[in-house]
Every structure is written in structure tokens, then in C-alpha cells.
Amino acid sequence: MPAIDRLFQLMQQAKGSDLHLAEGQPPKYRVHGHIAAIPNEGVLTHDQLTAYLQEICPVHHWAKYVKKGDCDFAYAMGASDRFRANYYKHQRGYGAIFRIIPTKILTLEQLNVPKKLYDFCELTSGLVLVTGPTGSGKSTTLAGMINEINAHKARHILTIEEPVEFVHPPKKSIITQREVGDHTKGFGAALRAAGREDCDVILVGEMRDLETIGLAVSAAEMGVLVFGTLHTNSAAKTIDRIVNVFPPGQQPMIRGMLAGSLRGVVSQTLCRKKDGQGRAAAQEILVSNIAIAAAIRDGKIAKLNQLMSAGKGEGMITMDDRLQELIDEGVISGNQAYMKAIDKKRFEQYEHETDGH
């Protein structure tokens, strides 16, 4: 058994989500959003951390890490536990963060998501974006949506990820999972090849550059259902980010393509529950309609929140309205809502409230 597995086991016993290892510091884990040092563990030396990291890292990834200073891969501990690994270098030496990947894919029902997410799984074409900051549960939500299609539809589903996180067994669908670095050179290369692979559904693990975004939007326009992720915290910022990746001369074109192909945006964040028992997802939902498509085409992104508030009957909700609902339901404290809100003024009465009261 690799020596590092002992630390993973300690994290699992504490019900942690992430393990942080950095040269010159003791090992730490994140539990329910809080980072704490693992009890009775000493400061990590260079030799000790190198031994931990090198033992579980594939040889080609280790060579890349030593040369370039960072790498990503997935590590399986035994048959049942998987972790997403990110290795990096910092001013004191080596470092790594491991995120636990649940081996059991939670269904949309178990995730207790809004009904609109089921509707997105029924689509046969278009672009659906799931966005939010790192660690907001985007991968878990997307895995639930891919699982929903896999369980009920006969489709060819292609996922392009860095690294592959949730492993989907084929059910009604054919599932092809490609890892950037191991199975394909990059997101762009895999998306270009996807045009020849008879795909019905494509999951793009990260839409981070002009080429990937352009190809994903084009695939959605050509009749494929494309799911993608971005690190944005609202529907309006998501549209802005996509458009602003393109040079000014191309922005009217991409706005037109987005207006035609976008089906929905789910922006989510995780909030600490009031009772201290884990975290709750707050989701903002935009569903494209004629008014929203026109606002995107005309570059009137500031109108989106108003249109979402008017579109409640279609399953839309703004982040701040959802946070208010979670306060009213007693799930989260007002202070948590204030911390996560887009419009802080709306929740400023809770700014100094003690969390959990």
C-alpha cells in the first residue's frame, strides 16, 4: 500500500473533501468547508513529500511535473476510492491537493436538484453550462445529469475531461470517456475529432480558451447536446466570459451563435448548512427563451437578471432569490447568504450575524 494512502484514510474518517500537502507545513484536510491540520502529523519535509507524491504518480506525469511545475491526474486507492490530484510547485518546494471523487454517482433525485435540470437532460441539441467557483459541486451535478441520460436514453455520450473524474458504466447509452493528456492532446483536439465520432452528447470538462469555446458552441449549433463548465458565479458573468474570450471583431458573431444555441445556464455555489451538517447547493437557473436570446444577441447582458426574475414560471431563478429561499427554509444562515450573494446590499442586515444562529 502506498504510504500516502494512510493520509487519505484519515481524511475519509474525518469526512473530508480535500487533502492539502505542502512542503514545510503539516498535512491538512478540508472538512465541511473548513481547512484544518490533520492531528498528530508533523511538518512535511522535501524528501517525505517527494516520496508520497512520486509513488502514486504515473511516470509521464511526474516528468511533466518536475519540468513544468504542475500536473493533474486521477488516483485510484484500491477498487473503490478515487481522487483528483493536482501537483504544483510553490516558494517552499512541492505541493499537492487531492479532491475525493465519490465512486457512487449521485442521481439528480439524490442531489435534490431543481426540476429544470431534468428538462435539460431531455434536450437533443444545444449548449447547457454548469458554472461556479472551484469546489462548488459542478462535477457532481454534471455527473448526475450524464447519469440521468445514460440511465434513460440510448445515446452516444462523449466526455472530455482533465482528468476523468466520475467513471460512468454504460447503461442504456454508449459512454466514451477521454482524458486530456492521456487519450487526447487537448480539449480542442478532442472536440474536433468528436465531429467524426457520431456523438449525441458531449461533456466538455472545462471551456477555458477561444478554440474550445468556439468548437463547443459550433457543435451545439450543429445538433449535438453539449454540456460545459466555466468558473463563473452567475449566468450574466458566464455570457460575458464567453463573449470576451473572442477578439472584438468576432464578438457579434459569437453572441449570435450563443443566442441560437444556448439552452440554459446553471450557476451553483455551496453554502454551509445552518446545523453544521455538511453543505447545501444554491443554484441560479437561466433558461433561454426569445427575450433572453435577444438580450444575448444585442449584448444587453445587464437585462438578464430582470428577465430571469420574470421567468420564474419557466423554472428560472436568480442566485440571490435562491439564497433567500434557503434562509426562509432554515437551511442556511443569513450570514452564509450574505457571503455568497451577488447583490450584497440585499443581505447586508445579515453581515454581522454569527454563522449558525
Task: Report what the structure shows.
There is one protein chain. By secondary structure, this protein is of the alpha/beta class. The chain has 2 domains: 5-101, 2-Layer Sandwich (Beta-Lactamase), CATH 3.30.450.90; 108-350, Rossmann fold (3-Layer(aba) Sandwich), CATH 3.40.50.300. It contains 14 helices and 13 strands. The chain has helices at residues 5-13, 46-56, 59-68, 108-111, 116-122, 138-152, 187-194, 210-221, 235-244, 251-261, 290-297, 304-310, 319-328, 334-340; strands at residues 18-22, 28-31, 34-37, 70-77, 81-90, 93-101, 126-131, 156-161, 174-179, 201-204, 225-230, 262-272, 279-287. The protein has a 7-stranded mixed beta sheet with strand order 9-8-10-11-7-12-13, sandwiched between helices. Strands 3-2-1-6-5-4 form a 6-stranded antiparallel beta sheet. Strand 10 (201-204), helix 8 and strand 11 (225-230) form a beta-alpha-beta unit. The longest helix has 15 residues, at 138-152.
